[in-house]
Amino acid sequence: MGVGALTAGLLLTAPQPASAANLIRNPGFETAGTGGMPYCWEKSGWGDNDFSFTTTNDAHTGGKAMKVELTRRVDGDRKALITESAECAPVVTPGRQYDLGLWYKTTTPDASITLFRHDATGGWQYWTDLKTLDLAGDWTEATVRTPEVPAGTDRVSWGVSVYGTGSATTDDYTMDQVADPVPPPQCTGTAEQCANGKWDVLPTQNPVRSMHSVVLRGGKVLLIAGSGNDESMFEAGTFTSAVYDPANGSYKVIPTPKDMFCAGHVQLQDGRVLVMSGNKGYPSADGRVGYQGYKDSYVFDPETETYTKTNDMNDGHWYPSATVLGNGDVISFGGLKEDSTGSVTAELFSEAEQQWLPTWKVNQTWSYWGLYPSMILMQDGRLFYSGSHVFGNNIPGTGSAIYDYGANTITQVPGLRKKDERDQSASVLLPPAQDQKVLTLGGGNIDSNPEANRLTDIIDLKQPSPSYVAGPPIPQGTVDLGNGPVPQTGNQGKMYVSAVLLPDGKVLETGGALHNRANPVYETSVFDPESETFDPMAVDPEARGYHSSAFLLPDGRVMTTGDNPGNGSWNHDVSVYSPPYLFKGPRPAITSVIDTEWNYGDTQRITVDRPIAKAELIRPAAVTHSSDPNQRFVDLPLSVDGDNVDLNVTSNPNLAPPGWYMLFAVDANGVPSVAKWVHLQGPQALKATDASAHVHDFADSPEGKVAGPGKKRTSQKVGPTLSGCDRHYGSINVCVPTDFPAEVKKTTAARCEWLKANDYGRLKVNGKDDPLRLDRNGDGTACGKGDLRKS
């Protein structure tokens, strides 16, 4: 039974201020209580296991200690916890941190310090696991510092979880509030920079039309263009990538074997980049044949800066998802096949075999997930489809779901508002990943072309039956409707939005447009997961709509690239944002990392040049089309001894899939260090098939409709105009909308005026059909003088 179920009916009195002394009552188990447990301690745990709780005389000091033992385990854990009551649970202050300590002996490697928190409105709930205890035959001290206490929390309870066969004996618990943080720093920039940050447009332009951005181990950036949505490049067989080096601002153009325009990509465990599928062919000039995805797959090596072919996928997948799993495998869904139909084939790249597995080795539901479906790995190994996708309507049902690969089931998740207007929205696993909350923001619909929305929705996947709830609206900025930027009004929001995790634990959202490849929106803000509020920031001066990217650099800045309006042009300017934390004085520095090869459950030591409040791993970006489902910020609880800081690494590879990560240290004012690179991998990553040890009541009873595998089929029929572009007009890289914005009258004159205001130029009519009535005189050219006279 989960701890949340044990707390019904507990009456909490008004919290009293925390004292400077040890906050634990009966820290050595010396005072007897009721029910066979010491005073202020209770039995807890869940799952199918055989266990015992013993007050033993084998003590560190005094005459008593607590022994928790599992003799058989299928799943779950057992733990002795501080009693969840007003009398026993320590009072805490939101925003503060606490140092926890205890002495222990263990006969199992599967023991961890586990925290629960009392929310003033939500009651008791699992908070996080802080530290895995090493095997210890003699009494050993363990210390760890909590993250900042979340808003709304008034008390905590904690203890040691045993989640493998064996025992943990503990004694002499301590809990002390960390000293007051350092005073606020002096602003080192202008008042505007210190409040809202600063954007710089770099002097050197991006040499390729890149729509894919991957931060490589070591800090360079792979920018993939392929044909760059330019049919002339495709016909010439000219496919490009570039590697950008932030250290000196240089670009190196990389030979690219195939058209990786609108491929999928993800970093593998060793830091190489897996690139899957891409563009086999553009739509036909008459619009009867759509985009086609090829089966080829490649790996990019950051060391040699070259591509190497893997085996083929089972299907073509133009616009596929790509999610790395806790064992290092990569799973992919959706996209378009070689014949322009939608792929219903789930693909699995095996980390062990370094190849795509045949279909018969991969669980199949024969479901069509659409294009670039945002599939986020949950802490128990399931996948959360957030509802963010690309092009047109969402999948049937609620538009969001939990996919269980092992059970091969799909459970619908409720609450996502306007689920069919989440085209080119962004979804991100909020910091820290241990909290299991997802934010989805913005979006529109390329087919119906309404004004993009300001919606945000937040889901807490730790809840037994998770559901989206409404978040705060995205702040409004300015929008260029054809005559220069004007303030947004009404419910105007944005699609093509980018969301980037920052090392201070917040999320930067930036860029976007109001309509299908038109009307750029200039707005940037920072979302605070603690307060669930937005704070408007300085604005990127460049338009960042379709085919733009934003991503975190190891120095704490954010880089933005691209923009591909409907007229087929491309923005080669590159912007870099310096957040306010870079104007708060000197940055802390990680002066040494004892070991850059990390295992799950490790304690890893670093040294810093001054006190820090937190440290975290941030997975480097692999972003395209507002989508980076692997982006995550993993908290590293601290054990602090002066400038020596021990970092406690999660034992759950589903929270931090194996690979290279940026390690940041952050001071009490939210100022981050420059990142160091560390490599997180097995051996536990390769054997941890059971992540239930710290799942507790996590998403265990979703109430939505459950579907198993459907009837085997070859594909999903998809219309050739799924990109929202009418191919009867102009070249292939020009997108004349199938549905103009609502404010444009359905007349030739009004449509032609809109096209002129958006710099479409001369448009040839492809074939004899003229569905938008732009060539009224039939001379083969849209919006000529004769056409306007006839309208």
From TrEMBL:
<protein>
    <submittedName>
        <fullName>Secreted protein</fullName>
    </submittedName>
</protein>
<feature type="compositionally biased region" description="Basic and acidic residues">
    <location>
        <begin position="766"/>
        <end position="778"/>
    </location>
</feature>
<dbReference type="InterPro" id="IPR009880">
    <property type="entry name" value="Glyoxal_oxidase_N"/>
</dbReference>
<dbReference type="InterPro" id="IPR015202">
    <property type="entry name" value="GO-like_E_set"/>
</dbReference>
<dbReference type="InterPro" id="IPR011043">
    <property type="entry name" value="Gal_Oxase/kelch_b-propeller"/>
</dbReference>
<dbReference type="InterPro" id="IPR014756">
    <property type="entry name" value="Ig_E-set"/>
</dbReference>
<dbReference type="InterPro" id="IPR037293">
    <property type="entry name" value="Gal_Oxidase_central_sf"/>
</dbReference>
<dbReference type="GO" id="GO:0005975">
    <property type="term" value="P:carbohydrate metabolic process"/>
</dbReference>
<dbReference type="InterPro" id="IPR013783">
    <property type="entry name" value="Ig-like_fold"/>
</dbReference>
<feature type="domain" description="Galactose oxidase-like Early set">
    <location>
        <begin position="587"/>
        <end position="679"/>
    </location>
</feature>
<dbReference type="Pfam" id="PF09118">
    <property type="entry name" value="GO-like_E_set"/>
</dbReference>
<dbReference type="Pfam" id="PF07250">
    <property type="entry name" value="Glyoxal_oxid_N"/>
</dbReference>
<feature type="signal peptide">
    <location>
        <begin position="1"/>
        <end position="20"/>
    </location>
</feature>
<feature type="region of interest" description="Disordered">
    <location>
        <begin position="766"/>
        <end position="791"/>
    </location>
</feature>
<keyword id="KW-0732">Signal</keyword>
<feature type="domain" description="Glyoxal oxidase N-terminal">
    <location>
        <begin position="239"/>
        <end position="567"/>
    </location>
</feature>
<feature type="region of interest" description="Disordered">
    <location>
        <begin position="700"/>
        <end position="721"/>
    </location>
</feature>
